[in-house]
Amino acid sequence: MTVQEKTPIDPKKRYSAGVLKYAQMGYWDGDYVPKDTDILALFRITPQEGVDPIEAAAAVAGESSTATWTVVWTDLLTACDSYRAKAYKVEPVPGQPGQYFCWVAYDIILFEEGSIVNLAASIIGNVFSFKPLKAARLEDMRFPPAYIKAFKGPPTGIVVERERLEKYGRPLLGATIKPKLGLSGKNYGRVVYEGLTGGLDFTKDDENINSQPFMHWRDRFLYCMEGVMKATADTGEVKGHYLNITAGTMEEMYRRADFAKQLGSVVIMVDLVIGWTAIQSIAEWCRANDMILHMHRAGHGTYTRQKNHGISFRVITKWLRLAGVDHLHTGTAVGKLEGDPMTVQGYYNVCRETKNEVDLPRGIFFEQDWCDIRKVMPVASGGIHAGQMHQLLHLFGDDVVMQFGGGTIGHPMGIQAGAVANRVAMETMVLARNEGRDIMAEGPEILRNAAKWCKPLEAALATWGAVTFDYASTDTSDFVPTASVS
Amino acid sequence: MKITQGAFSFLPELTDAQIAAQVEYALGQGWAVSIEVTDDPHPRNCYWEMWGMPMFGLKDAAGVMTELKAARATRPQSYIRLNAFDSTRGWETIRLSFIVNRPDVEPGFHLDRVEEQGRVQRYAIRRKSA
C-alpha cells in the first residue's frame, strides 16, 4: 500500500456509498501516537493469503470499534474519528511466517466504566470470526488509570488475606480433593480434615464439584467445615477449604455463598466459566461479606493455549484482576499443564506487581500501572510435587498458593504424611533461601537432608522425585525486536 | 500438641544462629523486626503483646538477639515470635513471622460445638488449660 492509501482520504470520497478498505476508512494511522487515556491492545493476526497485513490490522481495529463492512453516512452524525479504533503499528512475528503483531488504540469513550463484559464484547466481540483473517489472538492490553479506577479489583488481595490468615513469609499450601467425583460428603470431608491437620493451609473443591447425585452441596459444605474446624483446633492455625459455589443461576450461587459464610468459611470458589458478569457480581458479594474469592480458570485452555488464535492468559489475568478475584490459577511451569516458565512468570507479575514494566521475554508488551488496586494471589496447581520445591520457590517466590493434590493424597503413608512432606519441603527451602543459599543449585541436596529427619518427605521423594513433565510449550512469547512493516 | 503457626513450625526448633540468619535476611530486605509474646496462641488472637516497639533502622541482628534473650529470660513459658514488617507502599504489612520460643507443654485447643437447626453446628475453639 502506498502512504496515500493508508491515510484517511478526502472526506467527499470517504462517504460515497460502497465498500472501502478499512485502512481507507480511517482505522489505520501509522503516525498515531497513543494518548495516555487510550486503551491499547496487541493482536497477533494471520491474514488470509493475499490480504495486506496493514489492511488486516485496520480491519481488526474497525471491527472491534465502529466499522461495518460498508460505508454508512450516519457516521457523519457523530464525532466519528474519535470513535474509530486506530491500528498504529504492524510488525511480523519473528519466526512465524504469515503472522503479524498489530497494535490498536481505543479511545476511552468506547467503554463503559466498571464492566469487563463491555470490554470483552468490544475487543473480542466479532473480530475473531472475521473472514479475511485466518486466525487472531489478543496478546496483551494496556489500561489507563482512569479505566483501572473504575473497578474495585480483588475483594481481599494478598496483603489482607495474609493478615486474616496470620500466615507470612512462605507460600501457602493447598490440595485439591481427589478423586474429584464420586466421594460422598462424609468421605470427602475426611480428606479435607486429613490434609489440613497434616499441615496444609487450604484444601479445594475441583472445578466440576457442584451438587451431583453422589454429594449434594449442603452435605459437602457441612462435612468440609467440620474438617476445617477440627484441623484448626488441632494445629492452632487458621485453615480453609475453597467451597465451590458455582451453580446454574446467580440466585443459587448467592444461596451457596451465604451458607458458606454462615458456617464460618474464610473462602469460597467459582469457576471461570460462570462468565464475566457473574464474576463481578460474586466479587461484590465477597467484598460485602469479608470472603476470599478463589478463581479456578476452568475452560481457559480452549482459547488461551494455541498462540495463533484466541486470547492470551495474560489478558484474562488482567481482566480478572480488574473484575476482582483473590486467588487465580496461573500455572506451574514445571507441572502437568501447559506453561512456558517465562510466560507463566509474566502472569504472576500481572497478578502481583504494583506496576508492570515492559518485559518482552515474559510476554508483557505494555507498561501497566495498577493504581494501587489489590494484588491477586497466584495459584500453582497441577502435577507438582515436593521434589520440585526449589524450582517452584525460585520461579514464583513466597506469594503463591502451591497446590499438591495427587502429591498429597497419593502419598504412600497417607494424606497427613503427604501434607507433612510438602510443608517440610517448603519450610526447609524458604529457610535455606533466606539464609542466602543457592536453592536452584543446592535444592535437591537441601531436600535430601530434610528427608533424613522427616520420613514422609523421604517417602515423597522416593515416590515422585524423578517425575517431570518435560514437553515443549505451545505458548511462548515469540518476541525478538525486528523492523516494522512499512 | 505443637502449634504450627509461623513460617518454620514444621522444622526442628531453630538455633540462635539460624534465627539470626533469618533476622539478617529480613534486615537485608529493609524490613523492621519486632518481638511479640503471648500465653494465648488462639488462631484468631492476632494481637500478641509487643515486646517493645518494632526495631527500625537496625544494622545487624545483634540488637534483635539481645532483646530475644531478654524476652526469653522474662517469659520462658510463653510463646514468642519474631515479625518482620515491610513498609513499602502496597505491602505495609508483615512479610515474615516465625515462633522462636514455646512453653514446655503446649496444651492445645478444644473444638466446642453447639448444634443448630438443619445439621448446622456453631463452632468455637477454646484453649485447653495447661
Structural commentary:
- The complex is a heterodimer of chains A (486) and B (130).
- Chain A has 486 residues and is an alpha/beta fold.
- Chain A has helices at residues 3-6, 11-14, 53-63, 80-83, 116-123, 145-148, 157-165, 185-198, 217-235, 250-262, 276-288, 301-304, 313-323, 341-352, 389-396, 406-409, 415-434, 439-453, 455-464, and strands at residues 39-47, 86-92, 100-106, 133-142, 172-176, 202-204, 240-244, 267-271, 292-296, 310-311, 327-329, 355-356, 368-369, 377-381, 401-403.
- In chain A, the strands form three sheets. In chain A, strands 5-6-7-8-9-11-14-15 form an eight-stranded parallel barrel, surrounded by six helices. Chain A has a five-stranded mixed beta sheet with strand order 2-3-1-4-10.
- In chain A, strand 7 (240-244), helix 10 and strand 8 form a beta-alpha-beta unit.
- In chain A, helix 8 (185-198) packs parallel to helix 9 (217-235), helix 17 (415-434) packs across helix 18 and helix 18 (439-453) crosses helix 19 (455-464).
- Chain A starts with a helix and ends in a 22-residue tail after the last helix.
- In chain A, 54% of the residues are buried.
- Chain B is α+β, with helices and mostly antiparallel strands.
- Chain B has a single domain (16-127), classed as Ribulose bisphosphate carboxylase, small subunit (Ribulose 1,5 Bisphosphate Carboxylase/Oxygenase), CATH 3.30.190.
- Chain B is 20% helix and 31% strand.
- Chain B contains two helices and six strands, in the order αββαββββ.
- Chain B has helices at 16-28, 62-74; strands spanning 32-38, 49-50, 79-86, 93-101, 109-115, 121-127.
- Chain B has a four-stranded antiparallel beta sheet with strand order 2-1-3-4. Chain B has a two-stranded antiparallel sheet with strand order 5-6.
- The longest helix of chain B has 13 residues, at 16-28.
- Chain B starts with 15 loop residues before the first helix and ends with a strand.
- The chains are: A alpha/beta (486), B alpha+beta (130).
- The interface between A and B is large, with 39 and 41 residues.
